[in-house]
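hiii, so i know i said id send this last week but things got crazy w the move. better late than never?? heres the sequnce for the chain we talked about at the cafe, plus the structure i predicted for it. fair warning i was half asleep when i ran it
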Amino acid sequence: MELLLKIFPYVIGLVVLGVVISLFTGIGGVAQGGDFNRRHGNRMMRWRVGLQGLALALLALYAWLRNSHG
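okay and structure toks below
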C-alpha cells in the first residue's frame, strides 16, 4: 500500500498533463479553424472531459486511501 501511495501523485500528474495537452490542442484547433478543427475538435473535447473525470476520480481515491491508511 505504501508503494501505491508513493506512485499515485505521479500517475495523477500524468493524467493532469494529458488534460492540459488536450485542452491546448483543442484551443489551438478552434483558434486555427479549418480542417483540423472540423475533424478533431469534438474528439479533443471528449478526451479532455474524460481525462478530467479520471483525474478527479484518482484524486478522490488517493485522498480516501491516504486518510484510511495514514
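btw The chain has a mean pLDDT of 92. thought thatd interest u
miss u guys!!
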